[in-house]
Automatic annotation (TrEMBL):
It holds the Pfam family AAA_11. Residues 915-958 form the DNA2/NAM7 helicase helicase domain. Belongs to the DNA2/NAM7 helicase family. This is AAA domain-containing protein. It comes from the Bacteria. GO terms for molecular function: 5'-3' DNA helicase activity; ATP binding; hydrolase activity.
Amino acid sequence: MKQEATTAALNAANFWMGIECLSPNAAPKTGKDAATNAITYDIKCETEMPWLDLEKINLLSAHENKTTGSTDFNNTWRFTAYCSLLSMPIVIEEIRAHLGAVPNALSEYRPGNPAATLGMSLDRRGMVVDVPFISSMPWAIGQLSNTPKNTKIDFTGFFGLNALQDKLTSAIVDLLFRRGVLAKDGSPALIDALSAEMQEQIAADYTQRTITLQDINDVCALVFEMIGWHPTEIISALRIQAKPVSVKVDQSGNASNDTDLLNSFYVEDIHLVANAIERGDTGAALNDYMTAQLPDERVDIRAPHDQTVTQGVVPRKMPLGCWPSQHPLVLAQQFAVNTIHQKLGTGSGIFSVNGPPGTGKTTLLRDVMASIIVDRASTMATYDDPLSAFHTEIKIEGWKHGKVWAVDPQLCGKSIVVTSANNGAVENITKELPARKALPASSTLEYFSALSDSIAADFGAKERKHGATWGVFSAALGSKSNRTAFFKHFSQPVGKNAASTVPAHPLRTLWEVVAEEGVALPWQEAKTAFEQARQRVEQEQRHTQQIADAIATLHIIVTQLNAAQTTKINCIQKQVQLTAKRDQQCVRLQDAKLAHQKLARLHFVSQERDKAAEQLQHIQTALAADPVDTAVSTVAMLEESLHDVSENLRRSELLLHSHLQGKPGLFGRLLNWKLSAEWAKNLTLAQQDYKTCGDDVIRTRTGLKAAQRMVEQRQKLLAERDETQHKYAAAANSCQNAGLDPFEKHRLDPAQLLLAKTQYQTATDSLAHTQLEWEQHGQLTETAKDKVGVLLQQEKRQRLLLQDWHITDTMISTWCGEGLSEDQLQLASPWLRQEYFTARQDLFCAAMNLHASFIVASWQKLKNTLLALRFLNDGKITAGNVDGGIVQLWEALFLVVPVVSTTFASFPRMFKGWGRESIGWLLIDEAGQATPQQAMGAIWRARRAVVVGDPLQLEPIVTLPTEALEPLRLRCGARSAYNPNNSSAQVLADMANPIGTMLGTDDLQKWVGSPLRVHRRCLHTMFAVSNAIAYDGMMVYGTAKDERDMWFGESCWINVPAREAQGNCVPAQVELAANMISDFVKQYGLKTNGEFNLYVITPFRDTNAALDKALYSKIGGQKKGMHGTVHTFQGKEADVVLIVLGGDPKKPGSISSFAAAKPNLLNVAVTRAKKRIYVIGDHAQWANHHYFDSLAAALPVKSDIVLIGPEYVDA
């Protein structure tokens, strides 16, 4: 555990020790106990001591030889002194005061009978023969009173080595020794408690005397002084119980010491486990159990679509063996068994199963046990010689009866222990398992049945119950008396008196049974038979798994086929849709195209007309500015002017040339320089003229060209005008055709054209996309068609394969839940093939035969180990004498008897000396009735724990008042989950289980471990009420119909108003119930085959007390066991149940705060009735209360009732 978890667990253990220390067992009542022949007296003065009082001496002498023990020896008396008896009402008030708890006036809580401070075993002379036993209660009250408020109370200091208990014991023994009241022949434990000097003195010259009342008072005063607390009142100084024991047992010092019953059965075990937690000596089961928190990751197996159960019941997950039965497990049962097998089979831990009433918890546990047996048999089959499984000798101090051998470790760890807080539940399971009726009528399985028949024989019988059992599969142990009775059958046979009459079926011991011829198969034959049976199962399992895999493959194929067909259909449908869409889009595209073309045409022709008009206007404007005629005239003028200037240029050129020709020569210029100057001057003039004329030509020519261009332009403009006029006329005509005025300029919106263009483009794109999609779906359609074809072929092949295996569609539907309702699914048995089911049963039978053969074959070594275990039980050897521990001896017993049972109360004593995870398998039944601390020690000792119960039936009974537990928890620092008012052992186990479901709503929500769901006990009326008030409709109705008209007719509510009440008892209701029962008994009888035909149940003690008197007056003592409060009836059932409600009308809170506070009480009450339920009560008073409103709605109301029907016949 992590540190936080360790601290929480230790605080819880401290809290639980506090509860148990403050919850002592009561001292015996005064008077005679017919069951044990014990006689109890209150002693008020010295002369009343039973060894001094003549009247008591004579009475005891008269009973001296009437014993419950062996008749081979005379009997004597052993006395138990219960000292300083304390009144529990006074004690409870003091506890309340210290805790600040206020009594609940409406509570049904009643303090127990007086409890003793001290207990001592005395011989018939009145001398102490055993170590005194001190109650832890006074010390615990002292812890309450002496611990300051707001300070954590520590309840760990009383028990343990050198703790207060040891110191008290030492001081008391010292005082008793000094007083001279110790018997010289006291028990070994008493002698060991003395110092060495005292031991020498008591063996030599020890002076003895009878213990006195003053001695007892002094011893008690010493106890109170040492613990630091003194009671306010002692109601009786001494109560002595006289119990007959054989002289031989008395002289051996092994007489049962009942004084250890002063304390809670569990407190020392809690202390033991707390120490183990502190040092980290814990296993997975206890670690998970003590977590007391829901795991973060949980699987709600009822959640929609959750496949946990489906996957958990496949054939490969089933255990190889199962219990022989005509009826296989249904879905939830098989899931739980498989999960236990898978989760715990090769590992360790805890697993819880929620078992509502009538859902087959015992049936489930049988299959769990069968799987364990087969597992161990598989290991056994590995031995060539069973004797080789015993190769290590166990050394036992003082042992003189031959070598004792340890079982090979490979065969250990398979021990199965069934336990419960409910004694009836434990005995029912372990007594039912070996019964012949636990197997099908056709079964021939025998497993040392002569021994199991002998064990089943009535006490004191000389003859076994021949045929009553099939084998010694289980044993109800637990208490010392049960263990002693059982181990009588594990003794060596003694010589018989030849003259005595031998019964037809004499009692047999294991020694005698093993020696009988043919009691078991020869080892090799049994081994071969088992291996063949196992191979057959493995083959059937493989085949069934093949079938499961084939069906799974078929489902995959069918799923894929359906998907492919759907795809194909969808593709075809899509193509059809796309074709229609494409056609529509084609139309829309054409419309958009035409609309766009039309609008574009309008825009075009309008623009063309406007453009032509503008162009024409421009041309006309240009022509108007420079007419053509003017331009032509200008050209003509310029042509004429060019002619003139050209002529002038010619002349000027000629003149210049001429002038140049007449240039004076050198001599002339020399002779007449003036002539030369004149010539030059004229040359210049000629040149200037020539240039001027040339410029005129150029300018005229340029102007002419410009004028000519102008003429060309004007001519071109004229041509353009003509052309434009033509265009304009054509555009005007187009406008007119388009509906526009041909002569008016139009202002059309370009956005409209853009919109039309966009719509046209969109239509084009959509059609293209649709076309592409159509083509793609065409390809998908072809692909889907191909895939469907392939899958159809695969499906055909798979179905043919299943047909070859003779697997029908009905079988497939049942196994896979196809077409089944939730109820039908839960009622179905997963993967049920008769061949497989039969093979699994046969394997269990072969495993049992192998066990028998193994025991016989190894008897030479096994017998001494069993004999040593008996000696241990008888006290002839102690645990300390056995080297390596006593578990080795017990493992030998579990080879022979696979299952033993004990109540939680007997667990610490029966398994004293067993350590962490020393028990292979712990099966807890009715765990909802157990407080969490009751299961703590058992779970610590277990490697694997399977916890079965129902938190919605009876809750744990805590002897402290409810209002004191919460403040006590707070003072101990424990979490609320550890409060036994909030959590049972089942609740803590459920918290540790990640596989389960959530039941209830709001504050009453509960997480429960793997739930069983098919109810097979009650008829529908009771089933429906239970299912509605407690299980959210989770249960499934699986009970056969019963339409017999008998008893008091149909189930009903008999309305008897509570006009007068005595507390919670309504006399008129009790009177009616007594009369009904009287009539019923006369007509039908009270019992059939030893079982009650009718039960009478009430929520209140007042009503039960009145019923007790009324029924006694009607039917006498045979009423015992047929009536009581609800708390006494869990695990019981009868055809008819009367519920007498009672209830004080002046205190309606007694109903709402008790009977109707939770569904549990009503749930248990109604589910005790298999056939009919008759409710007697004030309808108006109860029908509006929670849960009882459902009961009222389910039952017709009657004012009277009449007995009907034929003689009773069990259905």
